[in-house]
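Every protein is a chain of amino acids, and every chain bends into a shape of its own. The fold becomes a row of whole numbers, each drawn from a learned catalogue of backbone shapes. The protein below has been through that process, and both of its lines are reproduced in full.
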Amino acid sequence: MDATADRGCYEETNIGSPESIMSAEEKINQLQKFIKKPRDIVSIGVGSGAELIALINLYKSTDIHIYGMDLSQKAINNVKLTLEERGLNASLILGSAIEKHFPNDSIDVFVESSLLHEIYSYVSEGKKAWKKAIEVISEQLAEGGIFLLRDFSSPESDKCAELTLTTDISIEFYRYFKKSYKRFEGWNKSDVDNIRDIEEIRYNEYPESVGNKIILNLSKAAEFLLHFKNFYQDYTNNTATLNDPKWKEINETYYIPNPYKQDFVPMPITEYVDAVLKTANDCLLDTPYKLICVQKETSQRIKTAEFLKNHFCLKAINTQTSEQELFNETTAKMELVFKKIRK
């Protein structure tokens, strides 16, 4: 994980730049709709520090304690230097998102951005790990506390689309992805075996292209398209090559499955919210509290959609959905906010 520790969920190509911090601030600002003067905020997964800087800027006029937590010591060290260079302060914690680091009912805000799909992808028994991450936040969250969850949710899986590969790099990447997706070889065999999900590998068998065209349900098309976007960034930065079996993202599942179903079934947003609430409220059953969803929205990733249109065409099958709508749906991000209240 240290290999990509300096890349945060908000950064595109200019890691740590003013643009990346502005992007983080745009997403973090929504917190003020739900909590004006928190005592403390925990950002899980520090990346390059853009999210922490955004949080400090957002609440700079208040007396608030901000924590940044990450599993990578390299990420912690890098962010510590970044904050010092800017004269900013936050408490940095080396630790896992599936372990408790604070007393129950003590933290006003938790923020997890593009992290839960990584927990699912890289921790043994990923569905259980995803649930554990939700449980520990639910327990540590204070009464009236807010949990901002930003991640990907699947498009409706029964939709199908014709995907056309329109550039040489997209054609080559599809061959690589079809061969290597979920067959990561970057660690030792026992580690890889522990995170393999046979149902997921079976679900994610990608078909041969006919010419440069492939028929896919939209959730599988979205998984491929976002992998291409992230690969292209690493490829142009000379940190990944075509047919590299050790490219970390080749094992990531952006659209994770319902943890309450045996088969691999990617969750659209409504199903995702229901799974979070069930997990949290089962955990809080013997307490005076419960979690409720106070925001269920998606944000459009316009630059990502426009980039992908340079390499692919998407055509709806058996629906009147336009190409632009399909690209918007396959690149959107959930903006979920949960609140802990008394029953």
In short: The chain has two domains: 2-153+258-300+334-342, 160-256+305-329. The CA atoms of residues 104 and 139 lie 5 Å apart.
